Amino acid sequence: MYNNSANTQFTGKSIHFLPSCHSTNTEASLLIRAQKAVNGLIVITNEQTAGRGQQGNSWLSKADSNLTFSVIFFPEKLHLKDSFYLNIVSSLSIAKTVDELVPENIVKVKWPNDILLNNKKVCGILIENMLRGEHIHAVVMGIGVNVNHSDGNLPFAGAMSSEAAKTFHLQEVFTRICENLEPYYLMLEQGLFAELDALYLQNLYGLNEKKHFSDSEGNFTGTIQAVLPGGLLQVEKESGVIKQYTFKEVSLVK
């Protein structure tokens, strides 16, 4: 069980706990459709058996070792064209939490919203929106954090505990995430897009550095130049060609 002790106005003040479920995002969506969700409600489970990641990838988590939960928000005036800011808000909040709890280590956001701790992935995020016309009526932020366990079969997977050489209390990490998420979400509600853009770039892995990528044309070396409106990743290849990519059109190998 998790409590709502976070020092927030609404994030995590209502908690829907499930000992086990297929997907917290699915459960959250059902609550929204049944009109049983309030702003900031969190669906959290000890064991997720059919979690979903970006573009249909799976996200599974060892029972009672990690955090798997979904946060529901009802944005007031968020246009669909600005939906990438939900990725920014969620990734910044997790990155800040990891940085606070595992200090003096390298924490970065890998585009669009993976969290890297010492170049190892410790968090995946899946954003799902419900629309009313061209505006977002409701958003479900699915968040999976490797707190005390990582899948050793996955390349570049890590956990907070292994990097910090200590075991974390899940409630402590959960509370800290809630407290860090709400201020960024309020920035979004206030329309502080430029400020969020700047913070995202400050935390972006590989910005202005030569890295190895892969796209439909094969492997290449390039440099991330910017993240454009809508979340497009702008990369300059070594050949001098500048390309813009949407999700899954390019992968950052290392």
From TrEMBL:
* One term of GO molecular function: biotin--[biotin carboxyl-carrier protein] ligase activity
What Gene3D superfamilies does the annotation carry?
A: Bira Bifunctional Protein, Domain 2
Q: Which UniProt keywords apply?
A: Ligase
Tell me the InterPro entries matching this sequence: aa-tRNA-synth_II/BPL/LPL (IPR045864), Biotin_CoA_COase_ligase (IPR004408), BPL_LPL_catalytic (IPR004143)
NCBIfam families in UniProt: birA_ligase (TIGR00121)
**Can you tell which superkingdom this protein's organism belongs to?**
Bacteria
- This one is known as Biotin--[acetyl-CoA-carboxylase] ligase
Q: What class of enzyme is it?
A: ligase
Q: Where is the BPL/LPL catalytic domain?
A: 1-189
Which CDD domains does this UniProt record tie to the protein?
BPL
- EC numbers listed for it are 6.3.4.15
Kindly list the GO CC terms recorded for this protein: cytoplasm
In terms of Pfam families, this protein maps to: BPL_LplA_LipB
The species this protein belongs to is: Cytophaga hutchinsonii (strain ATCC 33406 / DSM 1761 / CIP 103989 / NBRC 15051 / NCIMB 9469 / D465)
